[in-house]
Amino acid sequence: MTAPVFLLDSLADVRAGGTLTLDGPEGRHAVSVRRLRVGEEVVLTDGHGAGAHGTVAAVEGKDRLTVAVTELRSEAPPHPTITVVQALPKGDRGELAVETMTETGVDAIVPWSAARCVTQWKGERAAKSLGKWRATAREAGKQSRRLTFPEVADPLTTKQVATLLADADFAAVLHEEGSSPLATAELPAEGRIVLVVGPEGGVSPEELTLFAEAGAKPYRLGTTVLRTSTAGTAATALLLGRTGRWS
């Protein structure tokens, strides 16, 4: 198995051949949950592309260990980037969508309160739900051994999503009635790809019109209809393969 990944606020002062300390919640997880022991390999990351590989040099108590750093690595920025605008699903399916998209390799996730969303984020619920999405992305990033975790943006309105689409190098709305397949769409080699995943009730005609005016055509994924919690993952995987990022 590859070495487990743990999150640090910063790796700015870390050097190969030196040591660093992992404590707090991440240290507790490493010591008390993963039960890491001296000599085992670990990876530490800031979640923004920097990583420190090393071995456990010492374990103290239940939440602290020292890592001897053997190598520093960094992930180059991806080209093109993939952003998924995710309509709010019901229940915990939002966290499921964030988890699987993160594991697949999405670069950014934007929560969207679409007209036909049953779930709406308001007040304290909005802050709590957004926190869950961000925590899910962080944990999925570690689980999938990423050094760069996806950004989970603040929720956008439909008009704000249209502005995001207008600024993209390629923009698409995933729609079962789309006349063109995403599998054959002409994609940019650089820049930003933005995909819109609608709610279970579908993207409304008014939203489709607004997004089309912003340059986002409707595209279909295949012959089956995917749920909102899985469509973004399937589309991300397709584009990662087509753009060569999975090669």
Automatic annotation (TrEMBL):
Residues 22-68 form the Ribosomal RNA small subunit methyltransferase E PUA-like domain. It is an enzyme of class 2 (transferase). GO terms for molecular function: methyltransferase activity. Residues 79-239 form the Ribosomal RNA small subunit methyltransferase E methyltransferase domain. The keyword S-adenosyl-L-methionine applies. Its main location: cytoplasm. It catalyses: uridine(1498) in 16S rRNA + S-adenosyl-L-methionine = N(3)-methyluridine(1498) in 16S rRNA + S-adenosyl-L-homocysteine + H(+). GO terms for biological process: methylation. Its EC number is 2.1.1.193. It is found in: Cytoplasm. Keywords: Cytoplasm, Methyltransferase, rRNA processing, S-adenosyl-L-methionine, Transferase. Specifically methylates the N3 position of the uracil ring of uridine 1498 (m3U1498) in 16S rRNA. Acts on the fully assembled 30S ribosomal subunit. Belongs to the RNA methyltransferase RsmE family. This is Ribosomal RNA small subunit methyltransferase E.
